Amino acid sequence: MFDDFLTGDLSQVEAAVRAAAAAEIMPRYRQLADDDVIEKNGPHDLVTTADRRAEEHLTASLLRLLPGSVVVGEEAVHADPKVYEALGGDAPVWIVDPVDGTRQFVAGERGFCTLVALAHHGELLASWTYAPALDEMAVAVRGRGATVDGTAIRAGSPAPDAALRIAMSHPDYTSDEQKRALLGLRAEGFAARPCGSAGLEYLAVARGQADAVAFSWEFAWDHAAGLLLVAEAGGAQATLSGAPFRIAGGNDLPFTAARDRATADRVLAALRAGA
To answer: Could you say which enzyme class this protein belongs to (predicted)?
Structure first.
């Protein structure tokens, strides 16, 4: 049944993502009341009523679409960290970030998205990145490429000798060791800046609008959808040790995803020099 689901029409997943955003996110966009916004772990880590309701909506929809699957959502894990262990289990797992870029959403900006990925035994199989305020839907299916609104995208390669455009972890969210590594991207040949919504930063790499990301945290809901999107657009990724990023965790951080292997290797070399 699982194989039939993957080889069948996955547009029903896209429809579920759009429906959750239409029902729970966009009606609250620029309409949040004070009690709709809560700090989880400080002023930079916010959750809203839209996050919670959208995750509940998606969880119900996705489990109906694929009986026997499980959901690992950001808000469910915040309530019960043991939920995260499903990433290492035998059941197909939906990885959900209902509002990626909550700070931007709260500020009334357009740079937020909903992220959904499907994985099994640690392998990413399909992903959906939906930016509802921009009305853009990016879809990636392993071995079948990446699209935005139905049009195929390719990451390509940076122009020779151009400074690499890189979105990286904000220093406030890094350890001292990671800060040193990321300082390697402040060297000549790199144009680095703090990241916004991780999902939209990955989309920019997959489209060739940015050259790489360099991130120092590993929550699967932030990275799963984007990593597959970049891979299916022809890009590459690796952790500081050179090993591939593992969605279940235990990675050597920081890690990068880039438009091509040469760019990924260049970013990793700079990170190692900084470390």
So the answer is: hydrolase
Q: Which of 61, 92, 66, 96 is nearest to 78 (CA)?
A: 96
Q: Which fold has domain 164-274?
A: D-Maltodextrin-Binding Protein; domain 2 (3.40.190)
Question: HSE (CB half, 13 Å, CA atoms) of 213?
Answer: 31
- 90 neighbors 35 (Cβ within 8 angstroms): no
**Residue 46: pLDDT above 80?**
no
- Domains of the chain, residue spans: 2-152, 164-274
Judge contact between 215 and 100, C-beta under 8 A: no
Q: Residue 45: pLDDT band by 50, 70, 90 thresholds?
A: low
Alpha helices by DSSP H, the chain: 2-7, 11-20, 49-65, 74-79, 102-106, 176-183, 198-207, 220-232, 261-274
For domain 2-152, which architecture applies? 2-Layer Sandwich (3.30)
- Look at residue 124 and tell me whether its pLDDT is greater than 90: yes
Q: Are strands 190-194 and 164-168 parallel, antiparallel or unpaired?
A: parallel
Q: Cis omega (within 30 of 0) on the bond before 254?
A: yes
State residue 66 phi and psi, 5-degree precision: -135, 85
Please state the separation of Cα 207 from the chain's center in Å. Answer: 15
pTM: 0.95
Closest CA to 136 of 127, 145, 147, 125: 147
Count of beta carbons in the 10 Å neighbourhood of residue 40: 13
